């Protein structure tokens, strides 16, 4: 009798034959907009919902944490200043989007009694990836020093989506961070340099080696790695590979596939207090105590 083999529905990682792919095929490995046919309509709906939510919660908006047009927070405090806070870093391949576009994803956690803090950051090519990473560190420093003055005292769970997941994963070791919830991220930058995304990023050898979570020593704080079951294979395998690396080092944290979710719909699990991502944040904090 042959050994039991798990039937994995995820397509094989196309990057295993990277050298045989032409530039269009390499670009397609990371083109989330093209992979989700109605992505433009979803982004428009997200931005509209975020504008509504942001307008309804104006008290903590546009609070600077460093000099720069984008280096500011939108804060959505909880009624209890000691409540946990999710710090959410937006995505957009480090070169598009803004914190205001994601305000609606504070809704579920706010309803569950959590605070939410959304930092912005300078986009490429105005800033290098190394500079963007440093800005997220400065944002966390600011929260640690000044969050109490704005009603945020409780433990911080750092989260991010897409490029924001890479930025969150890199800051698991920050002293202000209790745990990380990384969603639909890119954790090895080397292939990115050989796609259209690098036109604005201009990744260096040093950035690839020092800013790729899959190339760095494991930090032994809790990290949950979430992805949608309908994500591009490159993103699914990056999440699995990073979880495997951490598991081999006995670092705490879960691998969380979200059934039926694609790169955009996965964030809807932040819209309800019983959403999968809301529960994942709550579970991380419980596991860190």
From TrEMBL:
Keywords: Hydrolase
InterPro entries recorded: AB_hydrolase_fold (IPR029058), BD-FAE-like_dom (IPR049492), GDXG_lipolytic_enzyme (IPR050300)
Pfam families named in the record: BD-FAE
Highest taxon, organism lineage: Bacteria
A GO term, aspect molecular function: hydrolase activity
Domain BD-FAE-like: 79-171
Hydrolase in keyword set: yes
Gene3D superfamilies recorded: alpha/beta hydrolase
Protein's UniProt name: Alpha/beta hydrolase
